[in-house]
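My current task is to audit a protein record that another person submitted. Alongside the sequence sits a line of tokens, each denoting a local backbone shape. Where you disagree with what is written, explain briefly why. This is what I was given:
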Amino acid sequence: MTRRREEVKQIKTSVGTCSITDEESMVVTLVKDSDFEEHGQIFQSTGVSIKSLTLKSSPDATKEPDWNCEQAKQFSLDIASLLPNLESVTFHNFGMHSDSIPIHLLTSMIQTSEARLKSFHLNCVCLLGSHKEIEEWASAIQRQKHLEYFRISYCGFSTTVPSSCTLHPIIKALSSLPNLKSLELWSYAEGRLGTLRDHSLSRLLQNSKTLTALHVEGFTLGDEIVSKLATAIRDNTCLQKLDLHILKEASSGTLKLAKALRHNNTLQALEIFLSNSSDAPTADRTSQPQQTTSGKEFLPLVARALSSNHNKSLQDLRIHCYQKVTQVEEEAFAQMLETNHTLEFLYLSGYEGDYRPKIEYFLHWNRRGRRPGVLQQKLCQRVAHKKSSQIKAKEHGNSEDYNNHAQRKHKQRQERLNRR
């Protein structure tokens, strides 16, 4: 069977490069200001068939165009007008070493476009703008009713952006979209994309009926925020993957999050980076940080919530924290896996205790789709069959002949099962 090779057409300009794959995907490398005008001309000849557009800086990430020039404004309008079938837009590695990307360019690109965008991704991008420009960007996003994937990965606001600017208008706009499937908000440093002090995330989980994946990283999530998220997760019926990183200043909120897993039966993958303020590593590495009361209760609560009588959907669980898992917590997860037949992967920070072999054993059989309870039941059936054969052998005169006959019958049954 031959593998189909994708045809890639390279269009080299005087300073940048444009790659077109299968006449549907275009990757544009922008190095200088003149690239904007040259690639705008390329859009006029090939833009009708383009569905995926990726804009990236030079490989060494030191040469970037000036996004505040007039050519950049015209370039954003060219994308909106000359690519009518565009479905996916990606910005990669801009503004981290030089001038930031003005938010109003993203607004004009989306607002004036007639295309039905399904994916919008900013990766390693530094943004520049005011609170009013963020609200205008949110209004433009709200009009994209076909948007399914919205990702801000390892991004941040410029240092000149006021500290009061947040992503709340963006999250509010996304909560009204009827087809949103995946949302990623990832700040490259804590506070670089503002704060999440209101309940916009919890309202998003409550309102959206299509969101299946949520990733939040680089934000300080307080106790009240996590509590509202726990309530939304408990009642949510569509979310399948959840990544929550850096849950600081949260004690009772994390306990509510653990209890929420008892009632949620759609979540399949959960990753939590848990670090309370008192859990931070000390300067002396030999001294162990004291574990808070909420930290001691969190893991056992999660284990009880994942018993077979409650959660039956979670397959992948990863919990990161500064403290190593205690033997009591390992025992709680080992007991949970005796009845839980769904969980296939489990990561706990530094669990190397006596219960790890038992945990790995049950996870192994869960991944193979064979339940340890069924295996134990078959073993009991074989033992009962052996005892029954011994009793019948005593009732017959020639027990040796009967035993040989029983062994042949058993061997024939095993061969039939193996052939199946």
